[in-house]
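pinned: reference chain
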Amino acid sequence: MARRNQGPRLRWLDKRGCFYIVWTERGRSRERSTGTADGKQAQIALAEFIQQRDRRSGPRDPSKILVTDILNEYQRQRGPKLEAPARIAYAVLALTDFWEGNTVADVNPQTCGRYAEKRGRSAGTVRRELGVLRAAIQYAYKNGRLTRPVTVELPERPEPRDRWLTRIEAARLIRAARTPQARLYLPLFILMGLYTGRRKQAILGLRWPQVDLNAQTINFEVAGRRRTNKKRGIIKIPPRLVPHLRRAKKRGTDLGYVLHDHGERIGDIKKGFAAACKRAGIEGASPHTLKHTAATWLMQAGTDPWQAAGFLSTSLETLLRVYGHHHPDYQQEAAQNIGRRPQNVRVIA
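pinned: its structure tokens
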């Protein structure tokens, strides 16, 4: 059985002392020197070669173009413009491992199912990764790389997690984050997650010009940021968070990040958060659990759902679907009325 065309790739040739770009064209092997022995420079030369080759080729049938080419082009051109380029890169890496040597025409419900089986991760993870494949194919079709679109079948959306912190757990977590091993920003991150209900990246990317301590508001929106379904919005600062922000402001700079490590933006807080959870004896929690906790606490306090949805910058439908059962009025009228005898109805024996 003939081997699949893997597309242009790099190969080191000892006899010539440099990297070559090799590919197969019309059944014949081709090669072109990059003129360098430096791996990074060779990768740049390969990317430029692929880009120029794609520009000349025009629209192609899905059976004539590799999945890996589509993924690499999507990551290179769209990745830096998206909100979470690192997540896109991680998904592309996993997808490439499975789809290498396959054409876009090989993408179908059966191969998507096999990908899910081989990946062995949660339905949510597989759905996100196949979502990147779908976006890459749609991007290629929209930009004239493919003659027709190809459907990518995603797993069913998993049920939303209902893990949230009790008040006692939250207090234990904050105490655990205040140990000498943890930096100053970790307790403030937890407090901001609990009292604003914002996602990790929105909190880590927050700068002091976005915080108005006089008007007591935080604008989580960033100028020039691409708008997505993950809205950020402007909120009123909860009173319990105000003194913590005032103290943090004294340690920061006027234009710097609210949470920082010696003035530098924090890349990720996952490891520090996990260590604090372990010290506090809390299982099954992640930074995103803080958002779930904020929404749950608002519902448990009997907050008007419209007000809560606005504060959390989420839709009323999503709030009620995911967190509505925590509200004290949840199905209250229905539960009381189900056993009542209907009024003004004559019962005939």
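why pinned: The chain has a mean pLDDT of 86. The longest strand covers residues 18-25.
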